[in-house]
Amino acid sequence: MSQETYELKAEARERVGKGSARELRRNGLIPAVIYGDKQAPISIALSTNEVTKRIHAGSFMTTVATIDVGGEKYKVLPKDYQLDPVRDFTMHVDFLRVSGNTQVTVEIPVHFINEEKSQVKIGGVLNIVRHTIEVHCPADAIPEFFDIDLSGKKIGDSIHISEVVLPKGVTTVIDRDFTIATIVAPAAGVEEEAPAEGEGEAEA
């Protein structure tokens, strides 16, 4: 499961538009919007420092949060955020209202384990085709990551999504057995392990 939820304080925005957004940013705030769940969208402003801290902490897009707007609390999942292309600071965030039965689409990172138990150990190259897997799942049961076990994998092998055990209620967006990674030989080939002492003497 994804990391524990957190809460952010926000204030409602009466004015919207580019001029209002610029003024908010000058005052250390980020314009944002809460939408979805068949309700009217709410324009809000959040602390730039708090949001940036959450983004840099990781799992921002897969962790359900609570936003307190003047005492009224909304359970949300970040769906998008915009960065300034030059100065790399957060300019805007979109949040989706969620509840226990809300289904969301999120990208879950993959972690590769047990490389030392595969032919990657003797020079094989792990060629990662997908660093994340896009899934549908309940908003209150978002996986934090998927472990991909490389034990016993040899050069020439491929790892497909069918080898990953998905939690209950989690399904992939792509409806086919797609490749996550392959193990390939390096350009110069893989050096064979040196024979044990004494091997080959009979031939000599």
TrEMBL record:
GO terms for molecular function: 5S rRNA binding; structural constituent of ribosome. Residues 8-95 form the Large ribosomal subunit protein bL25 L25 domain. It holds the Pfam family Ribosomal_TL5_C. The keyword Metal-binding does not apply. Keywords: Ribonucleoprotein, Ribosomal protein, RNA-binding, rRNA-binding. GO terms for cellular component: cytosolic large ribosomal subunit. CDD domains: Ribosomal_L25_TL5_CTC (cd00495). InterPro entries: Rbsml_bL25/Gln-tRNA_synth_N, Ribosomal_bL25/Gln-tRNA_synth, Ribosomal_bL25_b-dom, Ribosomal_bL25_C, Ribosomal_bL25_long, Ribosomal_L25_dom, Ribosomal_uL5_bac-type. Gene3D superfamilies: Ribosomal protein L25, beta domain (2.170.120.20), Ribosomal Protein L25, Chain P (2.40.240.10). This is one of the proteins that binds to the 5S RNA in the ribosome where it forms part of the central protuberance. Part of the 50S ribosomal subunit; part of the 5S rRNA/L5/L18/L25 subcomplex. Contacts the 5S rRNA. Binds to the 5S rRNA independently of L5 and L18. HAMAP family: Ribosomal_bL25_CTC. This is Large ribosomal subunit protein bL25. It comes from Rhizobium gallicum bv. gallicum R602sp. The gene is rplY.
